[in-house]
Amino acid sequence: MLTAIDPSTGEQIREVPAAGPVEIETTLERAESAFVDWRRTGFTERARLLRAVGAELRRGVEDYAYVMTEEMGKPITEARGEVIKAAWAAEHYAEHGEQYLAAESVESDATSSYVQYLPLGPVLGVLPWNAPFWLAFRFCAPALMAGNTAVMKHDPHVPGCAAAIAGAFRAVGAPDGVFASLPAATPDVAGVIRDRRIRAVSFTGSDRAGAAVAAVAASEIKPAVLELGGSDPSIVLADADIEAAAETLALSRIINAGQSCIAAKRIIVERPVHDEFVEALRARLAALRMGDPRHDDTQVGPIARADLRENLHRQVTETVTAGGTCLLGGTVPDGPGFYYPPTLLTGVRPGMAACAEETFGPVAAVMAAVDAEHAVDLANATPYGLAASVWTDVARGEAMARELEAGQVSVNGIVKTDPRLPSGGIKRSGYGRELGRAGIHEFVNAQQVWVGPKRD
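That's the Succinate-semialdehyde dehydrogenase sequence above. Prediction below.
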C-alpha cells in the first residue's frame, strides 16, 4: 500500500494500493501502443495537448495545490505557485519545442546531410515528493513534446498528487497511454526500468537511490538523466550587498521548509562581513512564521515525514557537538506534526554533519572564509555539484562561476529552476540536464541523415 500522512498532524489521510503485476503490464503495454501513433503526430498536436493541460492546471490551481499541501506539507501559497510553474513548463515546451527540435543541416560530402531529432519511445520518470507537480512536468513536458510517451512513477508518499496529475491529462482528453501514472512500489522499479518497452529513465532523488537507478539503466544500455542531491554553497564576499544577500538566502533556505535540492545550504562568508551578515540572516530567520501550511500567512510548514525530521535534528545536534554554534532554533517543538524551526548554525567547518551531508530542512549553516579563493575551495570541498550562488561584484562573480564545481550558478540572485534554462548537476549530484533546449534533447535520437550522391 502507498500511504499518505499529513505532516502537519501526523495522521494518515489516504491509502492507495500499489500497482501489481497486471497493472504494471497494462500500463507499459498502453504506453508502447500509444507511442506508435504519438510519435507520428506533428508538433502542433503535441503542443495542443500541453497547452490544454497547462490551462487545466491553472483552472484547478486551488484543488491541485491543496492535495500537495495535505500530502507533503508545502505552504499553500507556495503550492499554488508550484502548480502555476508546472503549467508554465507545459506551455513553454508547447511554444518552443518545435524550434528546439528543428533539424540541423551539416555540410559534408553528401548532396544533403542533416541531423534530425526523433523520439525514443516510452520514458519512465521516477520522481520525489518534494515538488510533486513541478518535477512531474519538468520530466513529462519535454518528453511528450519530443514525441515520446511518459510513464510517471511518483513517490509513494504523494499518491494523491500522482492521481491528480494523471487526472489533469484525462480531463483534457489526452490519448490513452500517452501519459500514465504508475503507482508501483519501490522494489518494483528496477523491473520496470529493465522492461524492454521503457526506452529511457529520468530520476530525481538522493544520490544513493540515483546510483541504483543508474546501475540498472546502464546494465540495460538505456539513457538516463539523474538530478540528485546537493550541499549547495552560497558565497558572500566582502563587497556584497549584505542586506540583499541575507534576504535572498533566508528565502532560499526556507522555501518548502528547506526541502529543496537547490536550496542554499552552506553559506560561506568572507571574514570582514561575517558578523554583519550573520546578524542580518538571523533577524530574517527569526521573523518567519511557522505554522499550518493551509494558512496563507504561514511561511514555514512542516518537514514532510517524521524520519526526515529526526535525521535533520541529528545533523544539527552532531554539528553543535562537534563545535558549531546554534544561534537560532535547533529544537524539536512539542505538539502534533513534523515541524522544525528555522535554525542558524555558525562556526561550521568541513567534516561537520551540516557541512558534509545534505541538510533537507530549514537549517542554514554558515562558514567563515579568509578570502575569495578560500571561499571557492570550501564551496568545492563536497562530493556534490548541483548549484551555487555568489554575492559580489558582477564581473568578479562571473569569473568565480567558472571556478565553481556546480551545474548552475547564480550571481547576486536566488538559485532557481526555469523552463528556459538547463538545470542539472555534476559529481554526485547527477548527470544530464533538464529543461531548456538541453532538456528536450536528452530523450531523442539525434539521427544523422546522409543523402547522396556524393559530391566531389
